[in-house]
């Protein structure tokens, strides 16, 4: 059984999110480019719109592909205080997708490393689960 590939889906308004997505070392694709059935597992990088809203393109993507989305990180401006990257909290609650990181604008090198590590751990844990399922099926 082949591991499903990881793709970084992004929704970028100013370019910060796109830049961050490209630093993660996986294929990247704007959320508006996904169509039809999806075989990939997706990590989503998006932004907060206005006063804490989830961008419409991100919502449309999640309404269709939340089941393929393994995690999310959200960009914002920390000067917004309690509204900082609030879209991430909303996505976590509404779609039950792990909020991995809130990014200040385009994020920092430590954010890139933390997200890479999280994806690698997810892949490792997912592979272990698949192997256990295969062993159980053989019994």
From TrEMBL:
Q: What is this protein called?
A: Uncharacterized protein
Coiled-coil segments, which residues?
none
Highest taxon listed in the record's lineage: Bacteria
Name the Gene Ontology molecular function terms of this record.
FMN binding
Per UniProt, the keywords (alphabetical) are: Plasmid
Q: Does the keyword Metal-binding apply?
A: no
């Amino acid at each position: 059984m082949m591991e499903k590939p990881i793709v970084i889906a992004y929704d970028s308004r100013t370019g910060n999110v796109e830049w961050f997505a490209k630093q993660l070392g996986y294929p990247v694709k704007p959320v508006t480019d996904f169509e039809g059935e999806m075989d990939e597992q997706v990590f989503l990088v998006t932004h907060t719109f206005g006063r804490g809203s989830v961008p419409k393109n991100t919502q449309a993507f999640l309404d269709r592909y939340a089941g393929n989305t393994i995690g999310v990180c959200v960009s914002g401006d920390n000067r917004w205080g309690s509204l900082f990257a609030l879209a991430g909290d909303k996505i976590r609650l509404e779609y039950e997708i792990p909020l991995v990181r809130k990014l200040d604008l385009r994020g920092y090198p430590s954010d890139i490393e933390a997200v890479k590590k999280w994806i690698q751990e997810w892949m490792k844990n997912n592979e272990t689960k698949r192997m256990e399922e295969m062993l159980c099926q053989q019994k």
